[in-house]
Amino acid sequence: MMSEAPTASDVRRLGTFGGVFVPNVLTILGVILFLRAGWVVGNAGLKGALLILLIANAITLLTALSLSAVATNIKVGVGGAYFLIARSLGLELGGSIGVPLYLAQAISVAFYLVGFSESLLFLLPDADPRVASSIALAIFFVIAWFGAGWAVKAQYLILVVLALSLVSFFSGYTPVAEPGDLLAPAFVRGHSFWTVFAIFFPAVTGIMAGVSMSGDLKDPSKSIPRGTLVAVLLTFFIYAAQMIWLGLNAERAELIENNLVMQRIARVPALILAGLWAATLSSGLASLVAAPRTLQALSLDSVMPHWLAGKLGSSPEPRVALVVTAVIAEASILIGDLNLIAPIITMFFLATYGTVNVVAGLERLVLNPSYRPAFNVHWLPSLLGGLGCLIAMLLINVWATIVAEGVIIGIYLSLTRRRFRTAWGDMRSGLWFALTRFGLLRFEASRQHVRNWRPVLLVLAGNPKARLKLIEFARWFEAERGLLFLAQIVAGEWEKLLPRHQSAAETLQTFIREQRLSAFGKTVIADDFEHGVVTLLQVSGVGQFQPNTVLVGWSEDTVRQAAFARAVRWILELQRNLLVYEEAKPDQPLEPFIDVWWYAKDNGSLMLTLAHLLKSNARWRNHTIRVLRIIKDEAGAEAAESGTRELIADFRIPTEVHVIVSEDLPLEVIARTSRYSEICFAGVAVERLAEQDNPLAAYADLVSGLQGNVLLTKSWHDLKY
Predict the structure, then answer these.
(1) C-alpha dihedral over 230, 236, 238, 244, to 10 degrees?
(2) Whether this model's pTM surpasses 0.70
């Protein structure tokens, strides 16, 4: 059983400003601000650029609201977004998002540092970008090694530089002659509103930087909502002001062609370059600090190997994860061209944002009583945010979206096979409860008709390990079209048996899991077998999903007992069909026939339906269904055959019809004709049920004589005494 990832409360020391607000702001105000905002305004025009900003920021704001809601509902531990998703949707889905999120964070370190190195070429054209990136990574590695506190202190310095660069930009003023000319769009060849939107959107995907530090926050449930929302709103106004200022101070051609147009406008041009470096370096540092914490959380949950959560000494920092992250980042730097993987990085971040939105929306939508966030958000904005993330992914790069989703699905399927058992409750059960409740109520209100009959079987399994063939037939009859209840009756005195009830129920559930049965377990304590059957028939299922058919194994000792006889009558009186099964015991190869002995319409239709359900399984697909009927007069054979064919034509089930003329007792004819058929359905006669002592004992010779599988069948519709 997996244990809850520790929250490391003993090392939490960061507040809202340093732990959430600063890393969010520095990640959002990144490379796009300095190198692409002008290009966006030049192509989309000022109106179009502001609309792009509004749409992009709306998605981010909705995600921030969802993130705030989820973060204030649980005690947030190390791992940030992964922690929230895993505790809401389970380790399988959490891990399928968390592993790509970690890789995206690790590779993003290299992405930002390569961006820094390329900007360095404006001053040092002969510098080697890989060497410069590697040196910067080494410096950041040392900072992160000594803890998040050191990283935060470094980010304060970077924030100051970034602020000075913005002051320099907004204090510069070189107005254009006709600023109104820039209001309308003028896209360059190959671009449109949405392609420009796709290029700009990564600018606003930095809100997870703060939540990634959740394990180091003093009060995550308060700091995450406050720091995230303030950062989103502040950076929105900064981008809006920047776009307007660019439109007032530069011509369209310059905005499109000069990536460093901000430097030309600024009062102190050198500060723009310093701000660009600050933006790239701060994003790289934030990713280098966040990624190891995500990997640490994955390791503590055993999604990844546990040794990756090691600390290498007394420091609380996840230093093993930091080393692994640095190795991945350095390998990415040495690869050089990151343009191919950059869209996939963005896809993983957006997939994470979308999942957080879905979590918040579904938690509210399913009305889970335990979902009580301090920061309340309606489900509609959250689900709209999730939809917005999906649309943004498709607009940015369809193929990258497909690759990212393929990776996520592959990891999910891999984790699903590992069958995690967690110590916390996630929202999946709440979601299924809400859907089941909705479906049950609608189904209960619908009109039921015989055409909609489905097998809902109550299997009296006893010791299920000794009745594997009985249970296998139950599975074939259910055929993924109905429901299966696997039941045990523990007979005896309540006081003595009550302590065994829980262990017996758990043993039955373990059997169901091990056999991978789609079944519900039921264990009841009763005075005797009869009362146990009556209890099961009244407590199993709900509404229209109560058992309509009881399947019990044949035992000559059992069927001769009065308690069994009374139980049979109760089964039929309570309007349930009866199936009594005896396993095949052939002394020679059996014939591929499923024989249905037709006597009464109601009983015959039940047997024919069950035979049809059997043939839906590959095991019985090549077997022939034979409908057999006994008459005493040869003269009526032709009419009986045509009448039977006409009768069963409505069932639309391929069958062979055979009419057998014989004056022998029906049970003797059945025993002789179906002796080596692999399956034989034989109806229980009405007059036999009137024999109160042992209604099925008269069938003992038939059951012992047939070599194949025997199913004595009785439809309650045909019950007449």
Answers:
(1) -160
(2) no
